[in-house]
């Protein structure tokens, strides 16, 4: 064994007092940075990142993390105001009175949760972008009501209960759309991993927001103007960061809105837009009423009433004709637009095709356009193995 002395430059000293060359110092720093980066990835990023998630994951999560920070602060300010309205710090207030008020608003919120979930759950998957942002608007609106509620003692309960209603809707819409987005991000089927790391990110940032928010609450105590000013500032930041985050999303599963945008571009330019181009055209808050009216005219996967099913022989003949041509859908005219009957064993592609046939008939396009459009979809990165077209569950078979 031979010992070899390595020349060094003074100025770089390790923990034991030994000098290191500038090159070794750089390697040491790179190693330290690498270790910190690996630790961060282990704690907060899905396993296999970035290959295990979609390309829009990083941009969305960055802004989603910032909005969680702002939301933690506004939430504390709203809670501070709510507790003051319930009598915390007031010598004449009783604990029983505060409990009754809290239970009342909590009960109204729970009833709202159940009602909203039963009425709107089917829309949340299909329009995850729009409902994700709407949830944040409603959440901020609910907290605003809680902030201003103590200003008028007579209106405190109505305002705080209305705030609870809005926040309960937020809980359903926000949680449901988060699940839908997690499914989008998890390209390797790693839903649990993506969801767990998203929760870790939000928990860490919310903790930081809670610390900052606690200091702000102490600073604004007794000053309503200052409290509302801080609330307004972080609410605007909250809405802006959410907007930016949602604008990062490139969802590639077809809902009626995205399918219409694709259809219009294909019919006019004979070109299929990609997910990024469609994302740039999608409205987050105010969806074009004309587009909404067009897709509302199509009933997909309808249930035929007994009289309709038994007496309309022409429809049965049409069904047999469609089956012979290999189609799994039957388009029928209705008083409001088009009804699409889906046949037994139809796939997601068949449902998408059925919607396109109905759209073509409603707007005077021919079958060749539908065939070309569906073929282009199948050859693209748009998903045709699943859809969000809000189709009914009924399927029909055609007897020979």
Secondary structure elements and pairings:
Layout: H1 22-44, H2 57-85, H3 95-126, H4 128-148, H5 156-185, H6 191-220, H7 224-248, E1 253-255, H8 256-269, H9 275-281, H10 289-296, E2 298-300, H11 306-311, H12 313-324, E3 329-333, E4 338-342, H13 348-363, H14 367-378, E5 383-388
Parallel strand pairs: 1-5, 2-4
Antiparallel strand pairs: 3-4
Strand arrangement in the largest pleated sheet:
2-4-3
Give the overall shape, derived from the CA principal axes: globular
Percent of residues in helices comes to: 55-70%
**Mean of pLDDT:** 85
Tell me the β content. 5-15%
Q: Please state the CA-atom Rg, rounded to the nearest Å.
A: 28 Å
Largest sheet: 3 strands, mixed
What is the fold-level CATH name, i.e. the topology of the largest domain? Growth Hormone, Chain: A
Count of spatially separate domains: 2
Q: How many β strands by DSSP?
A: 5
The number of helical runs is: 14
Distance between the termini: 90 Å
* SSE ordering: HHHHHHHEHHHEHHEEHHE
**CATH homologous superfamily heading of the largest domain:** MFS general substrate transporter like domains
CATH architecture term of the largest domain: Up-down Bundle
| Oligomer status | single chain
CATH class of the largest domain: Mainly Alpha
Uncertain regions spanning at least 5 consecutive residues: 7-18
Which structural class do the helices and strands define? mainly alpha
